[in-house]
Amino acid sequence: MSGMIEPIAKLINQLSKLPGIGSKTAQRLAYYIISQPEDQVRELAVAIFNSKKQTKFCSICGNYATDDPCDMCRDESRKNGQLCVVKDPRDVAAMERMREYSGQYHVLHGVISPMQGIGPDGIRVSELMKRLASEDVSEVILATNPDVEGEATAAYLARLIKPMGIKVTRIAHGVPVGADLEYTDEVTLSRAFSGRSEI
Predict the structure, then answer these.
(1) Measured between alpha carbons, how far is residue 179 from residues 176, 191, 193 in Å?
(2) Is 69:59 a contact under the CB 8 Å cutoff?
């Protein structure tokens, strides 16, 4: 980057590798960071390093944790027979923000995607099946994204789980709050219509 000293150029280059951060945002962040007091910059750097160093995956659910098993897997009150299956740890965080689900989780760490060469062996399906065989689970809630890969993964898992006599449910998909029907695509509208409930 012409007219830019090397340390700033390197910082911009590293920041621009983050998802959703373009070169202009990376430059804005870099200049903000170097304008801060040294102790605040050190705290940020230490927090980034420590979060990577101290975070691991729970051997039971596959979520991020500092201890193994994680707090949610150790929490007896969450062992209510429900197991919510999600694509990645960010989805666990989203579900927890809702504050309506109080069961346990299983993180797949991906979805089935033949286009990317990811089959059932490339995600944590075998670990899920072992859990279902050994734990007291009465309902599996499939909460993968409503895209092609998420739907394919949910359908595949449902075919595996139903013969075990376990109830399999899928989170509802439909029109988001605040959306206009005229701008909603046909697939979303169709799902919202078929998933309608009595009021």
Answers:
(1) 6, 15, 15
(2) yes
Query: What pLDDT digit, counting tens, does each position of 35-81 carry?
Result: 999 999 999 999 999 999 999 999 999 999 999 999 999 999 999 99
* Cα(127)–Cα(51) distance, integer angstroms: 26
Residue 63 host element (H or E): none
Residue 197: what pLDDT?
Answer: 62
For the domain covering 78-170, report its CATH number. 3.40.1360.10
| Token pair recorded at residue 84 | 């919510």
CATH superfamily of 6-54: RecR Domain 1 (1.10.8.420)
**How far apart, in whole angstroms, are the C-alpha atoms of residue 188 and residue 144?**
15
CB atoms within 10 A of CB 104: 22
- Give per-residue pLDDT as tens, 1-28: 567 899 999 999 999 999 999 999 999 9
CA distance between the termini of the chain:
60
Other CB atoms within 10 Å distance of the CB of residue 65: 21
Distance CA 152, CA 111 (A): 8
Cα–Cα distance, 155 to 136 (Å, whole number): 22
**Is a pLDDT exceeding 90 seen at residue 192?**
no
Q: Where are the domains of the chain?
A: 6-54, 78-170
